[in-house]
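pls read this stuff:
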Amino acid sequence: MLCSCFHNALVFFQFLQVNVIHCRDPNALAYAIKRSCENKAEVVSLDERESGLRATLNLGHTFGHAIETGVGYGQWLHGEAVAAGTVMAVDMSYRLGWIDDSIVKRVGDILKQAKLPTAPPETMTVDMFKSVMAVDKKVADGLLRLILLKGPLGNCVFTGDYDRKALDDTLCAFCKS
């Protein structure tokens, strides 16, 4: 649900923050699930072959899939791994200078309020991330493409055009070794 709200939907993100995370209103949750599905369906209908736009629904997934693989499938729920991966993708976006620190804080806060992990397990290492990410389906011509935030909250980019040092710095910031 949170992934779909990042795709060009600031108002929906604010709705989630207030009505679902804080109030735990069942009617608001039902609406959020419905709206999330509608948003995803709209994006998929615009990009049925996953040529770019559709990939933006996967913010945090590349890092998250590395976590799932690194710790073993089933050890972390998919949503938990993607939540931690989203924080990592947002951190990298900030390191690239593409977003300001208020977005980093806001994303981290909503995930913490939802009681989701905001960092990978301590057993994950930089080498584990790199080896798993190197064979991710978003690698093209040997280049890892990532979904990152760029500009105001809700603006995602699917790109391989980023400073590799930012990726290294993010991985080092979240891993002990």
